[in-house]
Amino acid sequence: MAEEGLGGLTLRPLARRLGYPIATFARQVGSKDELLDHLIALAARADRDDLEPWLQLVQSMETLPLEAVIEITEEVLRMRCGAGRSRSHFKCEVVQAAATNPRLRPAIAEWIAVDRQLWQSMADRAEEKPQTLDMVAALEAFAVDDAARALIIDEFDAYRWMRREGIRRLWHGLFTGKPSVPSVLYMRALSDQPSPNGVPFWSAKTLTTTRDQNFGAIIADLILDIGTDSVTHREVARRAGMPHSSVAYHYPMQDDLVELGMNAIVEMVRSESLAAMNSKELPLIAGQLAYASFAIALAAARRPNLRPIAREMRRRRGENLMPWLQQNAPADLPVEVADVQAMSSVLVGAILLSRAGVNDSGPITTQLFAQLGDWPDLLVRFR
Known about the structure:
mainly alpha; globular; disordered C terminus
């Protein structure tokens, strides 16, 4: 799955890798759906075992100082990037797939609930916490968004600092006026990191021909709807209403199609970035673009040359929201970069969990915007 995504989890290649005849293997494991259910249950159990020492520690205490709460939150998320990395990747893939596969929703809901017991125990014992923000829901959403980004950028000090500062902001409360000037430098540093293992940087290209623009739009919609694994010559041809051979003639490899869709999405992101300064519409946080940045992060976990653009999209997401908030917020509201990045992570995670059928994103979204003060018209515009 780390090589091919959830779409690559089929019985025939698994049987071949394990040295079984396909008929024998199919009798032992059942259908692909049965195998997937079993793997999700095993992964959820392993996550529960990893969390058990932390849960016992938290539940042994009557109260938790805020610094301890922040430290435990960060350590649990970092653990998912270490020994639990393969499970974290698997979990992200299932969250993405559940948006269009309702059969997966009960299983991913149970898996997400594994963390909930720890978040709830911490929230119950925290000496300080925001009174108007459901920290359990906020941490669930933040953790889902962080999991995909951490697959490709947890190795960088800049990202780890940003994650810690985001956790701190959530527990302390957003938009309290605490300066975050260094976070601007860290976010810039994140985009400027060298290319991994000498792989050339992927850089977006402007789609100049009508054919590229038309196919790019089709593929972008496909990525936004389902994810990069869904981008095949057959599916693109079906959506374009033309023979499969015609698509393959112009774009021989699947990577050619994915790159075309990525270029179209990046152009969409950049266009919205420019429009954000003069728009009353909330930029780059609406459900489809949130889903796209998640899908691209998962694709980048398998294709190292996509990692620079995935990092850039993570940085842009908060930075594009920042000027919009500064322009539309009350004059006395202290809008800091770290607050905006934390807010965007929770919003995106909430959208992903809502699409996966786990939680309704409405309550946490309402609570997040309540951090901005009495601003009901903003929430209307967001929805």
